């Protein structure tokens, strides 16, 4: 019973032997009844998943939207304020700042690992089956496996005043630039960004390597014969082939940047000042410390819309061909 | 295919470089954990006398025994139920003629990119009204809902590619939908099911936001959530913090190394499908 088969005609499109409409009608009705009857077990199988999804995702999502129109401290009576919580997202420096920070983090969480991962994968492709490459699959995945919290703790220590990062800079004679990277107004956001880049780099690289392994080597041969250099080879052969993987890597890392919470909670708590405050953390502070439930909900709705608005176009671009 | 020696060495050098960047933070954590408690060691330095007892102390301080129990309890509450429900739903949506299938799919797809932060506020009040705050249920139940979009789409993607004839043949032999599912499709879907189980296990283990918002008691949280509390408590004692972090990391790493092959495959696929 595939979708493509014409429904309602149990004889699969062959001209019916009889053309008496009554029989046709009866048969069609019987068909429809059978289809519905057949559909019931299917619906029953979907029910448990749909139930949990509805109760613990859709319901709170509806509540978030509802709360966002009120001024509410979680205890006393809520006051309807219309769109006020939303207009404040654009006028309040702290709220707007958190959204701007999230966009700045896209550079580090997404653009850096994707670009570097792509170049590295293109260079490494040549010996994708060597023992070194096999070991690297394990190693490069480690940041994906550990909790982000652990990555945050590791790097907080690495970037501390006498952590390994400053040790390295002193070693190569750059002792002058050492500082507490996460505590400095000018470097805190990039420093947090470095943690995010470190987490995603391996995944991006392995994604691209997996995509490149499907390319027919003859294409590269042909490109070489046509006198293509490394750059034009990358542009003409590699990039088109890993288009889908590229879309996936960008999508994942951009979502990661917009909804970053764990790393920042652990490493800077949004400081110094509000220089690393991001929407996820701001929602948490507003709702559970400042008791501004309405404002937190408006920011949550905005963040959800933002993620969708960024992800959908990327997916559309990456999807050259229609695939499920 | 000919590649010059120079190209090969560039590639190798680069790979080693990226691997070093990945590994050094772990090494730094490890050597720091061996320094005398309460000291403020410098970056990457092997201590004069390694304090292996730091790990024992951290194990006690973090109440690791209780933590492991709590984490495993949460995993047991989430993974089997989530895998079962999503396999049933994915089978129905991918392989049976379900009425309103399109609508159902669109609703599930909507949840794929939904940030947890987007619903955490009402979730707190909802869980509170059930009287479940500060219990493992506060993490288990929301995760079952939050994992559904991905898990259902994952299983559906698998079932859509199962040949129709298989089911037709079973039906001709008089199998009911239920028998068809359990006797034919589940055994054939084991690879997809186990990959999904691995992914959900990992995401549950590393879940942080739900844990810190809904569960105050660190010993009833996930591992990642407990680590957050541990940092709050021991943040000033760097060697202790590093030892505790390593202990909390170790189970994940062991599971990863044991199932490494499936893990990498599952994560790469999960990335592409998610």
From TrEMBL, chain A:
It is a multi-pass membrane protein. Residues 99-314 form the ABC transmembrane type-1 domain. Its main location: membrane. GO terms for cellular component: plasma membrane. It comes from the Bacteria. The keyword Acetylation does not apply. It is found in: Cell membrane. GO terms for biological process: transmembrane transport. Keywords: Cell membrane, Membrane, Transmembrane, Transmembrane helix, Transport. Belongs to the binding-protein-dependent transport system permease family. This is Raffinose/stachyose/melibiose transport system permease protein. It comes from Demequina lutea. The lineage of its organism: Bacteria, Bacillati, Actinomycetota, Actinomycetes, Micrococcales.
From TrEMBL, chain B:
It is found in: Cell membrane. One of its GO terms (biological process) is transmembrane transport. It is a multi-pass membrane protein. InterPro entries: MetI-like, MetI-like_sf. Belongs to the binding-protein-dependent transport system permease family. Coiled coil: none annotated. This is Raffinose/stachyose/melibiose transport system permease protein. One of its GO terms (cellular component) is plasma membrane. The chain crosses the membrane at residues 12-36, 72-93, 105-125, 137-159, 180-205, 238-259. CDD domains: TM_PBP2 (cd06261). Residues 68-259 form the ABC transmembrane type-1 domain. It comes from the Bacteria. SUPFAM superfamilies: MetI-like (SSF161098). Keywords: Cell membrane, Membrane, Transmembrane, Transmembrane helix, Transport. Its main location: membrane. The lineage of its organism: Bacteria, Bacillati, Actinomycetota, Actinomycetes, Micrococcales.
């Amino acid at each position: 019973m595939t979708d493509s088969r014409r429904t309602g005609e149990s004889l699969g499109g062959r001209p019916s032997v009889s053309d008496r409409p009554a029989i046709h009608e009866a048969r069609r009705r019987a068909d429809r009844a059978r289809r519905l009857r057949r559909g019931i077990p299917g619906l029953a199988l979907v029910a448990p998943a749909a139930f949990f999804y509805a109760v613990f995702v859709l319901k709170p999502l509806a509540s978030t939207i509802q709360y966002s129109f009120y001024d509410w401290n979680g205890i006393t009576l809520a006051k309807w304020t219309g769109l006020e919580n939303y207009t404040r997202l654009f006028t309040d420096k702290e709220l707007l700042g958190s959204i701007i920070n999230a966009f700045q983090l896209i550079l580090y969480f997404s653009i850096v690992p994707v670009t570097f991962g792509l170049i590295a994968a293109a260079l490494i492709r040549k010996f994708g089956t060597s023992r070194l490459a096999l070991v690297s699959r394990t190693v490069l995945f480690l940041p994906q496996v550990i909790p982000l919290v652990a990555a945050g703790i590791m790097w907080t220590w690495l970037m501390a005043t006498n952590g390994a990062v400053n040790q390295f800079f002193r070693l190569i004679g750059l002792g002058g630039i050492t500082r507490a990277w996460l505590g400095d107004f000018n470097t805190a956001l990039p420093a947090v960004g470095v943690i995010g880049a470190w987490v995603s780099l391996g995944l991006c690289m392995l994604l691209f390597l997996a995509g490149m392994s499907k390319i027919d080597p003859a294409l590269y041969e042909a490109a070489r014969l046509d006198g293509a250099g490394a750059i034009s080879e990358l542009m003409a052969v590699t990039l088109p082939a890993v288009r889908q993987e590229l879309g996936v890597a960008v999508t994942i890392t951009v979502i990661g940047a917009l909804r970053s919470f764990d790393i920042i909670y652990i490493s800077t708590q949004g400081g110094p000042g509000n220089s690393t405050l991001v929407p996820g953390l701001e929602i948490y502070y507003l709702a559970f410390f400042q008791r501004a439930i309405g404002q937190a909900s408006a920011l949550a709705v905005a963040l959800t819309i933002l993620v969708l608005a960024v992800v959908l176009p990327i997916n559309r671009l990456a999807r050259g061909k229609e695939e499920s | 295919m000919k590649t010059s020696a120079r190209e090969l060495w560039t590639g190798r050098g680069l790979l080693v470089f990226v691997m070093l960047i990945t590994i050094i933070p772990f090494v730094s954590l490890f050597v720091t954990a061996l320094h005398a408690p309460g000291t403020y060691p410098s970056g990457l330095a092997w201590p004069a006398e390694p304090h292996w007892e730091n790990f024992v102390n951290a194990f006690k301080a973090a109440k690791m025994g209780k933590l492991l129990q709590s984490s495993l309890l949460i995993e047991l509450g989430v993974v089997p139920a989530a895998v079962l429900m999503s396999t049933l739903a994915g089978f129905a949506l991918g392989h049976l003629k379900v009425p309103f299938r399109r609508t159902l799919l669109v609703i599930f797809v909507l949840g794929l990119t939904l940030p947890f932060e987007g619903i955490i506020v009402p979730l707190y009040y909802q869980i509170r009204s059930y009287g479940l705050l500060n219990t493992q249920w506060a993490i288990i139940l929301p995760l079952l809902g939050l994992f559904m979009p991905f898990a259902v789409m994952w299983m559906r993607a698998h079932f859509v590619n199962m040949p129709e004839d298989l089911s037709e043949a079973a039906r001709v032999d008089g199998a009911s939908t239920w028998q068809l599912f359990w006797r034919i499709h589940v055994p054939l879907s084991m690879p997809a099911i186990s990959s999904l189980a691995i992914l959900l296990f990992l995401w549950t283990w590393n879940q942080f936001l739900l844990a810190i918002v809904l569960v105050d008691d660190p010993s009833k949280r996930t591992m990642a959530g407990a680590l957050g509390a541990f940092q709050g408590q021991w943040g000033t004692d760097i060697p202790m913090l590093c030892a505790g972090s390593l202990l909390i990391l170790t189970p994940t790493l062991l599971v990863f190394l044991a199932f490494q092959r499936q893990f990498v495959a599952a994560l790469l696929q999960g990335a592409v499908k998610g």
